[in-house]
Specification:
mainly alpha; two-stranded antiparallel sheet
């Protein structure tokens, strides 16, 4: 897999007169962390860091096995695993 060095930018209005760029890569990570906190962390009464790790690992396993609208209702495993298998076979 080749990672692009070029950042992906999108133009949007920051104020009434000037446009600005907003980095799209950060949006994905911020949305992931928001979902983790709202769907798992905030619902538990946390007593120690081991509990946070256990809750996070369980939620990430759940997140990777549920269908995502951005992937045409496929799970991330179903969407990305065929490409990994083809690359490993080569």
């Amino acid at each position: 897999m080749q990672i692009s060095k070029r950042p992906r930018w999108r133009w949007q209005r920051c104020g009434a007169t000037r446009p600005c760029r907003r980095h799209l890569d950060n949006i994905v990570i911020e949305r992931l962390w928001r979902s983790l906190k709202q769907e798992a962390i905030y619902l538990e009464e946390i007593t120690d860091s081991f509990q946070v790790r256990r809750i996070s690992k369980g939620w990430m396993a759940f997140y990777n096995t549920r269908p995502h609208s951005a992937l045409d209702r496929q799970t991330p495993d179903d969407a990305y695993r065929p490409g990994l298998n083809e690359r490993n076979a080569a």
